[in-house]
From TrEMBL:
NCBIfam families: thi_PPkinase (TIGR01378)
Protein name (Swiss-Prot/TrEMBL): Thiamine pyrophosphokinase 1
One Pfam assignment: TPK_B1_binding
MF terms in GO: ATP binding; kinase activity; thiamine binding; thiamine diphosphokinase activity
Record keyword Kinase present: yes
Subunit structure: Homodimer.
SUPFAM superfamilies (UniProt xref): Thiamin pyrophosphokinase, catalytic domain, Thiamin pyrophosphokinase, substrate-binding domain
Annotated catalysed reactions: thiamine + UTP = thiamine diphosphate + UMP + H(+)
InterPro entries: Thi_PPkinase, Thiamin_PyroPKinase_B1-bd, TPK_B1-bd_sf, TPK_catalytic, TPK_catalytic_sf
Family: Belongs to the thiamine pyrophosphokinase family.
Function: Catalyzes the phosphorylation of thiamine to thiamine pyrophosphate (TPP) utilizing UTP and therefore links the biosynthesis of TPP to pyrimidines metabolism. By producing thiamine pyrophosphate, a cofactor of the mitochondrial pyruvate dehydrogenase indirectly regulates pyruvate oxidation and lipogenesis. Although it can also catalyze thiamine phosphorylation using ATP and CTP in vitro, it does so with significantly lower efficiency and without physiological relevance evidence.
Domain (Thiamin pyrophosphokinase thiamin-binding) ranges: 213-281
């Protein structure tokens, strides 16, 4: 036990030293240390190899416009795989549609969470027999997605799994209440997931929440043209926003519903978009050209 505690302390110290060194190097190169860097398109293009990430499958259409091997790779390389209630059946159907064997070849979900009102019991037993851990989350004051992210945190802590990014398969078609609730989950999750990056991947777009502060979003070359779309959506409250790298930049401008919401924006051709915001702000971008 003593050895275990000392080891954990040692790892924390090394991490802290590495962070101080990284901040020093960034400062020397005139890069803002307090800027969050977002590179999800590179993650997709590099087949998700370089990240400590979890994948979460919600109960919506899995209709990603991507080579099915890439999506399977996202699943296989994850440090943690979670299917949420009816998302379990969606995942199974997707595997069957692409002729993947659930017997030996494809890993089962590590966790199946939810109130289990949309998952037939025989499918739950099917995966339980393959080793999936079932966590029932009956609370009807939070969505199954929010509860799944809480379980993700607990599971990672209990099993010493390092995850800094969460890719969520969350299509933006179908039930409007769920589309909005899923965005609300992004707002809530920062309370308990801290600075883990949570990306919602839909069939042809990717969206995430920019917290108050400064952000740098990497734009791959084949998206840097003005027929691609991106958006800054002040879902929670009005935001005062400054940007660079967009065709329609903002300069301490207020975005709010009933006023200006930056949709159908596009890029100016630079490799990064920078965003400064005083409040959490949803960023969304089309990714069809890189899939
Ligand atoms: C003010 C208020 N409105 C609505 C609800 C109902 N409600 C909110 S989250 C939730 C659970 C939703 O479960 P989930 O599996 O995420 O979605 P489902 O597909 O079952 O609708 C429920 C019932 C509530 N508890 N409080
Ligand atoms: O139309 C939908 C339905 C559901 N979701 C998301 O999936 C989870 C689980 O849903 P269940 O219906 O309980 O299986 C839910 O919390 C939503 O996040 C969705 O996005 N769209």
């Amino acid at each position: 036990m003593y050895f275990y505690v000392v080891t954990i302390k040692g790892i924390a110290m090394i991490k802290n030293r590495a962070k101080i060194l990284k901040d020093k190097i960034l400062k020397m190169n005139n890069i803002d240390c307090h800027e969050s860097l977002w590179t999800p398109c590179e993650d997709i293009l590099r087949n998700f190899y370089e990240k400590n990430y979890a994948v979460v499958v919600l109960n919506c259409r899995i209709d990603l416009n991507v080579d099915h091997r890439k999506l399977l790779n996202l699943w296989t390389k994850a440090k943690l795989r979670i299917t949420v209630d009816g998302g379990t059946r969606r995942w199974l159907k997707w595997l069957e549609a692409h002729e993947y064997e659930t017997n030996n070849t494809v890993k089962p979900p590590d966790l199946i969470t939810g109130d289990m009102d949309s998952l037939p019991p025989h499918l739950l037993s099917f995966f339980e027999e393959k080793g999936s851990k079932v966590i029932r989350t009956p609370d009807q004051n939070q969505t199954d997605f929010t509860k799944a992210l809480r379980e993700l945190k607990t599971h990672c802590e209990q099993n010493l799994i390092e995850v800094d990014t969460v890719f969520v398969l969350a299509d933006t078609s179908g039930r409007f209440d769920q589309i909005i609730a899923n965005i609300n989950t992004l707002y809530k999750a920062s309370e308990f997931l801290g600075d883990k990056k949570i990306y919602q991947i839909a069939s042809n777009s990717i969206s995430w929440l920019l917290q108050a502060g400064n952000h740098r979003i990497s734009i791959p070359e084949n998206l840097r043209r003005d027929k691609e779309w991106c958006a800054l959506i002040p879902m929670g409250a009005p935001c005062i926003v400054t940007t660079t790298g967009l065709k329609w930049n903002l300069d301490k401008s207020t975005l709010n519903f009933g006023g200006m919401v930056s949709t159908s924006n596009t890029y100016s051709g630079e490799p990064y978009v920078t965003v400064s915001t005083d409040r959490p702000l949803l960023w969304s971008m089309g990714i069809e050209a890189i899939l």
